[in-house]
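Hi Y.,

Following your request, here is the sequence exactly as I used it, all 281 residues.
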Amino acid sequence: MKLLMLAYRAWTMRASQIKIIGSDLRSSLVSLWLNRRVQLNIKNFVRCIIFLMSIATINADETSSTQGFSKQDLVNFLRPLLGGKINTKDFDIVIEKMPTESVPENVSLKEAIVDDVVIPSQQRSFQVSLKLKSGEKISCSGKIEWLANIPILLRPIGPGDIINVSDVGYQSYPVDQLTAMVVMDGNDIVGKSSAHTIIKPGLPVERSLLKNPTIIKRGDMVDVVYRSQCLIVSAKAQATQDLACGDTGTFETQHDNIKQTKKISAKVVGPSTAEILHGFA
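Below is the corresponding structure, written out as tokens. Let me know if you'd prefer a different format.
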């Protein structure tokens, strides 16, 4: 009897283990099936995106072929046309509205006839109507950007760096983007230094970014000169501050036989020379 009970228990335990194993196997199969469906859905989604992109590319190609010319072709055609009607020779054209009309393939703008040109008095925009050889009429519009040839720096300039002629280049820049503080002459940059921070190259340079380099340091002995119509007086004096050429500063003089110092206001005119403006204090 005991043997029968032990055999029954062993058999029931084995059956439960088999049931657990079967349940785990079923769960694994369901999970695998779901993952497979997700992968298939992702693949189908990617295929759909690729298909739509190919259609868009085909449509774009068809559109460009029906126009028969590019935006750059239109700019090249309009440049001499607009150049003869505005008061500057240095300008750029920005096409804002391309022709919406359908243009036959292989149509050249060289054979187009100008039907109408509208340029407002400020000469900052335009509207042009053209008649093609095939008979179609097209229209376009855009902006006219006046350009100025301005000096720019070719390398970064930091405080203490002196700008040389080789550091200055020129670049065309839209006039409407320039302020009254921008330096327009390269000669006004050469010999200057940065007033505060590093000046970046390739950009318009404003006067507030520049200063004359320091040529007299505090404690330096310089020749202070007083000039009149019939008299020139020169004396040695000590600078009380760092000064650049053109700056006005205070200098102290001291006689050999007395310890009392006198202060002089003078303008720096050279590396070791200043001229008296207001006499002795």
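The chain has four domains: 27-56, 71-147, 148-211, 214-280.

Thanks again,
Q.
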